[in-house]
Design a protein that fits this description.
10 helices; 3-stranded antiparallel sheet; alpha/beta
């Protein structure tokens, strides 16, 4: 099995096409300037030995060298030893509200940013569990299927944004319904749903769907994001950042609806927590509640040992870099 030990370092590869684009732009500007300066034949006589193809070849070598060095930085690995492992855990689905109201800043820097940080902390303390990610507003969609690759999950959690919502509004009931469909029919007693939301529910079916989910063995925990005083919803316009307004032109204030979230958790044999209490205390209480759920055994065959291959990429990258260094920009006459 092939993998990179540090996937996050691969984002540095974005610098490669950027450098190529800047080079192409500089060459275009240079060509335009030379055309204004004089005739092409005359310029060739004024610049003996100039070899534009060498510049391109040196750039290609430089970009290839940087690509190899970045890949080596991420440390490519290949699984060397397959080992049978048995673990115990539950299927845990994390549902995050990405409606516009989650942009409110009554929990700085915003409700959504606070939730994302909290959810990452929950993943960090959920060793052994199969975890999936569901995002919802008016509609719901599975952002990440059940997996034990927690690095993969953290990347998806940190990338969650309100712009992913296909329509305005919040439908917690639809999220619960989709969560029930996501868990397999063979799993009746080893599953839990954790909902992060400010409690705004424009459809009003959440309580009924929570009771139905409880009948199918699903335990639902709700995490409130926001304050009773609430806050305004910032929106970006061509004039800068303003606040969302209603039909009368007044700023829309959104508040945490704890009552709804408590009822949902109670209907599905779960518990309610307020994120404002502090991530450490809430994660601890949430984990205690989750750990009471009956676990089932999973059989895995992971690669327990990996061989590193970064040194080969470093060697080849440095060789290309040295080659580029010794190639002159001008040809010898």
């Amino acid at each position: 099995m092939f993998r990179f030990e540090h996937n996050e370092y691969l984002f540095a590869l974005a610098a490669i096409p950027l450098m190529a684009g800047l080079y192409a732009l500089s060459q275009h500007v240079r060509k335009r300037a030379l055309q204004r300066f004089g005739d092409a034949a005359l310029l060739e006589r004024l610049m003996p030995g100039y070899a534009p193809q060498r510049n391109k070849f040196k750039l290609i070598l430089l970009l290839l060298s940087m690509t190899l060095l970045i890949l080596s930085w991420a440390n490519p690995q290949w699984g060397a030893k397959l080992e049978k492992v048995e673990r115990k855990g539950i299927d845990l689905l994390i549902a995050i509200d990405i409606s516009e109201s989650m942009l409110a800043q009554d929990l700085p820097p915003s409700r959504l940013e606070r939730v994302k940080k909290f959810a990452v902390e929950l993943v960090n303390q959920s060793e052994g569990d199969n975890i999936g990610i569901l995002l919802f507003s008016c509609n719901s969609f599975l952002q990440a299927p059940f997996t034990t690759d927690y690095n993969f999950l953290r990347l998806f959690l940190e990338s969650a944004e309100t712009s992913m919502a296909s329509s305005a509004g919040t439908n917690i009931g639809a999220a619960i319904e989709m969560a029930g469909e996501t868990f397999g029919e063979d799993n009746k007693n080893h599953k839990a749903l954790v909902i992060f939301s400010d409690g705004e529910d424009h459809e009003g079916q959440a309580l009924e769907n929570a009771q139905e989910a409880a009948d199918n063995g699903l335990i639902v925990m709700t995490i409130g994001a926001g304050t009773a005083e609430g806050g305004f919803i910032p929106v970006t316009t061509s004039f800068g950042t303003e606040y969302k307004r209603d039909a009368s032109g007044n700023p829309v204030r959104t508040s945490l609806d704890e009552a709804t979230l408590r009822k949902i958790a109670k209907a599905a044999n779960g518990a309610y927590f307020n994120i404002a209490s502090g991530s450490e205390a809430v994660v601890s209480g949430l984990r205690q509640r989750i750990d009471k759920i009956e676990k089932r055994s999973y059989e895995q065959r992971p690669f327990s040992d990996y061989n590193n291959y970064f040194q080969y990429l470093i060697g080849l990258g440095l060789l290309l870099l040295a080659t580029e260094f010794f190639i002159a920009y001008k040809r010898r006459e």
